[in-house]
Structures are given as structure tokens and as C-alpha cells.
Design brief:
Blueprint lengths: L12 H11 L4 H6 L4 H8 L6 H12 L3 H7 L40 E4 L9 H4 L5 E9 L3 E11 H7 L8 E6 L5 E4 H4 L4 E7 L2 E2 L9 E4 L11 E7 L19
Parallel strand pairs: 1-9
Antiparallel strand pairs: 2-3, 3-6, 4-5, 4-9, 6-7, 6-8
The structure holds the ligand Nc1nc2c(c(=O)[nH]1)N[C@H]1C(S)=C(S)[C@@H](COP(=O)(O)O)O[C@H]1N2 and molybdenum atom (MO).
The site of the ligand Nc1nc2c(c(=O)[nH]1)N[C@H]1C(S)=C(S)[C@@H](COP(=O)(O)O)O[C@H]1N2 has 18 residues, from β2.
């Protein structure tokens, strides 16, 4: 992955707590197993990682570091925390780069999921075709950099199984998304194949409501809110860095654990 450094806005303190909880999934042993010496980590993060309590803050700094290092730290098998059904927020909290009153509902009958790039079978999918695929469910925390979070229950098709089914090149670097509201987004292949990365169709057991991405949106347990595009219309598998809406405006591209 091309190393790139992108400045990130200083997040709200409440968000740091939430993010810290996610980052607990990364432990000191894993950093060492990955071959990054404590000395090197101290240099990279500017804090003394020999003190155990400093490791968490070192990892917080890592979040803002270059995407290559973050992608390298990503453990494809490690699961982010999940929560009991009793904690699911209904309805979820809305956010987009515009107000909820400006949401333009997607017409399911005319909707297609287009495929392009390094994919063997690029035939577009209708919604009824998609709903025949096996689905899974996850109750995870959604964290927005604006300083709020909520626990949500998402069901859908694991992106990894979808990519395998259409014959995507799983060695490609990026999976990119287009949306009905022109909010381009993209993720690394390791995260695309992570078991907690879903092409979500349902929220809390019901079809997604219009403001939350009907008919199809991405939901990942391992990345911040803005990396989860709603109202997806196209998926591309590519080795060319695809960037994204907020990433073009200075937000971190990797933005995850
Ligand atoms: N298509 C699209 N997807 C989007 C956005 C957007 O503006 N357009 N906003 C992102 C941001 S910043 C957040 S926090 C989440 C909000 O998702 P929710 O409304 O389901 O909570 O959607 C993300 N996905
Ligand atoms: Mo967000």
C-alpha cells in the first residue's frame, strides 16, 4: 500500500474514549509479533511505549499515522467488540454531509449494484438477487468523528463472501464504492475480507430505512463512521488509490483498527 500521511481533525474527547475501547483489540504482544521494536514505536509515536499505560496513547497516535503502517497492523482475524441486543438504538442516529431532510430515497425497482475493475463476473445485481445470498448479523458500535456513537444491529452479506462469489481479485489493494448521493469511499482489501464487514440490508431486523442507506450500505466493525458508505450503487476492485469524500478533505483514509 502506498504510504500516505493525511492530517486528521482533533477529535472530541468523548470519541477518544470510544476509540480507545476499539483499540483495546490491538495488544502490545501483537505489535511486537509484527516485528516493530519498542524503540521504533517510540520514535514513530513520540511517546515512551515501554510504559504499559503509554501504549494505548501510542496506539491512538498510530490511528493518525500513515495508512501503510495502520494497514500493516490490521489483524484480519481479530474481532471488534459486539454488544447485547438490549443495547441496540432504535432508530439509529443519522449523519451525512447534508441534513436528513435532503435524503433522496433510492427506488428499489430501478436500483442495480454495478461491478467493475478486477472482478471476473461484472454482471450487475438486482436487489432481489442480492437478498438470496447468505447473510449474517452483528451488533457493533458506530463511532462518528463528530463526537457521538451508538450501538446498532446490522444484517447483510459479508463483503468477503460477495467478493469471492463474483470472482474478485482478492490480491488487489482496494475495494471502492460509489453511492447515489455522490459520496465516494474506499477500503483496503484486508478490511473488505474481515468477517465483521457487511453489505448491510437490514437494521434491527428490518429493511434499512431510507436515511440509513436503503437498499444497500457498508457496515464495518473496524472503522469509523465516515468509512461506511450508504446508498451504494457500485463496487470497484482496484489497485489504484481511490480516496473518498472526507479523505479528500483531510480525514485519515485507513481510519480503523
Ligand atoms: N452515502 C453516504 N454515506 C455516508 C455518509 C454520507 O454523507 N453519504 N456519511 C458518513 C458518516 S460521516 C457517518 S457518521 C455515517 C452515518 O451513518 P448512519 O446515518 O447510519 O448513522 O454514514 C457515513 N456514510
Ligand atoms: Mo461521521
Amino acid at each position: 500500500m502506498t504510504p500516505r500521511f493525511r492530517p486528521v481533525e482533533r477529535p472530541d474527547p468523548a470519541i477518544l474514549d470510544d476509540h480507545r475501547a476499539l483499540l483495546r483489540a490491538i495488544d502490545r504482544r501483537r505489535l511486537l509479533r509484527g516485528g516493530l521494536s519498542l524503540g521504533a514505536l517510540t520514535m514513530l509515536t513520540g511517546c515512551d511505549v515501554r510504559r504499559p499505560d503509554a501504549v494505548q496513547s501510542a496506539l491512538l497516535t498510530l490511528r493518525d499515522m500513515n495508512d501503510a503502517v495502520q494497514a500493516w497492523l490490521f489483524d484480519p482475524r481479530k474481532l471488534a467488540p459486539t454488544y447485547p441486543a438490549s443495547q441496540v438504538l432504535k432508530p439509529p442516529k443519522f449523519n451525512a454531509y447534508y441534513d436528513v431532510t435532503k435524503v433522496k430515497p433510492v427506488d428499489a425497482a430501478g436500483w442495480r449494484l454495478e461491478l467493475s475493475g478486477l472482478v471476473a463476473d461484472r454482471r450487475p445485481w438486482t436487489l432481489s438477487q442480492l437478498t438470496t445470498l447468505p447473510q449474517r448479523d452483528m451488533i457493533i458500535k458506530h463511532i462518528c468523528v463528530e463526537g457521538w456513537s451508538y450501538i446498532g444491529e446490522w444484517s447483510g452479506i459479508p463483503l468477503g463472501s460477495f467478493l469471492r462469489r463474483v470472482g474478485a481479485d482478492l490480491k488487489a489493494k482496494y475495494v471502492a464504492f460509489r453511492t447515489a448521493d455522490d459520496y465516494p469511499s474506499s477500503i483496503d482489501m484486508a478490511t473488505a475480507l474481515h468477517p465483521q464487514t457487511l453489505l448491510a440490508l437490514d437494521y434491527a431486523g428490518k429493511t434499512l430505512a431510507d436515511p440509513f442507506g436503503f437498499p444497500l450500505r457498508l457496515r464495518m466493525a473496524t472503522k469509523l463512521g465516515y468509512k461506511n458508505p450508504k446508498w451504494i450503487t457500485a463496487i470497484e476492485v482496484t489497485n489504484r488509490y481511490p480516496s473518498g469524500y472526507w479523505e479528500d478533505r483531510g480525514y485519515s483514509w485507513f481510519a480503523g483498527i
